[in-house]
Amino acid sequence: PLAPAGSRRAHPHPPPPPRRPRRAGARPKSPCVDSCALDDLEPERGVGALLGGTQIAVFRLADGTVRAVQQRDPYSGANVMSRGLVGTHRVTLDDGTERDVDTVTTPMLKQVWDVDTGEVLDAGGKDRRPLAVFAAEVRDGRVLVADVATLGLIHISEPTSPRQSSDAVWCEHK
To answer: For residue 75, which of 115, 47, 105 has the smallest C-alpha distance?
Structure first.
C-alpha cells in the first residue's frame, strides 16, 4: 500500500556503511568472502556461487588467476554467466595500441564482456549493458571474493560477510 501524501516511510535498506578514507595511490579494498579452494575450479571454466543473496560467477583463467562477475546475464535475464565461454578479445585503445583482455561470452545471446571492468565489448547489435565485477584473488590456495561489486550496476547495500570489520579479510581491487 502507498503511504499517505506528505508522510515519510522508512527506507527498506539501511544506508551503506561509510567508506574508509584512502591513502593517495592506494588501491581500494572490500571485505572478502572465502568462496572455494582454487583446486575446485577448472582452468578457463566458471562456477556459480552465492555471495550473501547475490548469485555470482567465478572463473579461473588459464594463468591461475580468478575473476568474479554477476551471474545474471544482463541481456537474457538468465543466471547463466558461469556457463559462459572464457577467452580473450583484442581491443584497440584510444592511443591506437592494441592489447588482449580476458573475457566471458554469455552462452545465451553471445555478448562479450571484459571480466576485469564489466564493459561489454560486443553487444551483438544491442544496447550496451555492463556486468557487475567483484574483486577476487587467491590466498593460500583459497578463492576470496569481495562482498560488494566494485564495477558495474549491481549494488549490495549491506556487506554479505558475517565477519565484523575488525577481523575481516580484505580484497584489493584492480
So the answer is: 105
Task: Evaluate if residue 126 carries a pLDDT over 70.
Answer: yes
Classify residue 134 by burial, with Cβ atoms within 10 Å: 0-12, 13-18, 19+.
buried
In this predicted model, which residue has the larger pLDDT, 125 or 2? 125
Report the pLDDT value the prediction gives residue 121, as an integer from 0 to 100.
94
Q: How would residue 52 be classed by pLDDT, with cut points 50, 70 and 90?
A: confident
Q: Is 165 within 8 Å of 143 (Cβ atoms)?
A: no
Instruction: Judge whether 36 and 121 are in contact, CB under 8 Å.
Output: no
Q: Which three cell numbers stand for residue 12?
A: 527498506
Instruction: Enter the pTM of the model.
Output: 0.72
Q: Which residues, 6+ apart, have CB-to-CB distance to 57 below 8 Å?
A: 46, 47, 48, 49, 68, 69, 70, 71, 81, 82, 84, 104
**Inter-residue contact 116 to 88 (CB < 8 Å):** no
